[in-house]
Design goal:
single chain; 162 residues; mainly beta; Glucose Permease (Domain IIA); eight-stranded antiparallel sheet; three-stranded antiparallel sheet; 3 helices
């Protein structure tokens, strides 16, 4: 009984969903992301086209144009992985999604394959924002990694107290 009363909260972690160069969200060349209108987060300039689950949780959104996936972590944190900028106009070309809404995923599980060459050629940018869409209502403090490079499923991007 006393263990629950004095139990310290632990830090939760969000892992990199894609391998590449870590970039501050404020440097994303799109005000919706850079001004954190959608929430706290970080971005990655991908060097690999594999997108993996950043947390253990449930897929809650797959964009009809396949360029974005939303995952709800077990603690209720909602994470949006938005591959590239203005990629909705690609209408799914260059994206192969391997999960469906309602699927349970584990950290590192492949969710999508992206043809980075195609996206580089046809979209505004390949930079990939990773945003906590319910951060504005959670009253949590998020800490962004100091790492400059990410390895999909291995690098911790963000931590927060749960």
């Amino acid at each position: 009984m006393f263990n629950k009363l004095f139990k310290k909260s632990k830090d939760s972690e969000i892992y990199a969903p894609i391998t590449g160069e870590i970039v501050a969200l404020e440097k994303v060349p799109d005000p919706v992301f850079s001004q954190k209108m959608m929430g706290e987060g970080v971005a990655i300039k991908p060097s690999s086209g594999e997108v993996v689950a950043p947390v253990n949780g449930e897929v809650v959104q797959v964009a009809p144009t396949k360029h974005a996936i939303g995952v709800r972590a077990e603690d209720g944190t909602e994470i949006l992985i938005h591959v590239g900028l203005e990629t909705v106009s690609l209408d799914g070309e260059g994206f192969s999604v391997q999960v469906n809404v309602g699927d349970h995923v584990s950290v590192g599980q492949t969710m999508m394959q992206v043809d980075l060459s195609y996206v580089k050629e046809h979209a505004k940018d390949i930079i990939t924002p990773i945003v906590i869409t319910n951060s504005n209502t959670s009253n949590r403090a998020y800490t962004v990694t100091q790492n400059q490079a990410s390895e999909a499923g291995d690098t911790v991007l963000l931590t927060y107290e749960s």
